[in-house]
Amino acid sequence: MDILSSRIILRPADYPRTLGFYRDGVGLAIAREYPGGTVFFAGQSLVEVAAHGGSDQPSTFTGAIWLQVRDASDAAAELALKGIAIDRPPVQEPWGLIEMWVRDPDGVPIVFVEVPPEHPIRRDTRRSTD
Known about the structure:
Blueprint lengths: L7 E3 L4 H11 L4 E5 L2 E6 L2 E6 L14 E4 L3 H10 L6 E5 L5 E6 L5 E6 L16
Parallel strand pairs: 1-4, 5-8
Antiparallel strand pairs: 2-3, 3-4, 6-7, 7-8
């Protein structure tokens, strides 16, 4: 099987509110729009907010959306200025990443992640051919 692309699809209880959250609050760029939905660029992935198929029940999404940012403190300040509540401010985790947590209007957790320069994600771990 070849996986050609992927995206996260959210079916919110209040489409306009969630659309505004991702577009205006988080500031994701629109990849495409269609009647009843908007697809956003999110780094190497896509986040789709779909007006169809949602419900007025709380979200049962049990995962989290992971968004890498250059500076988590700057992201926190920007979100706070837009009135987005920060569930957990930026903190360096034992695994080395700096993480900040918020929730979208349906309660979907979003982690904004800063990768410090010394973190293994930024290092070339291949062995030298010398």
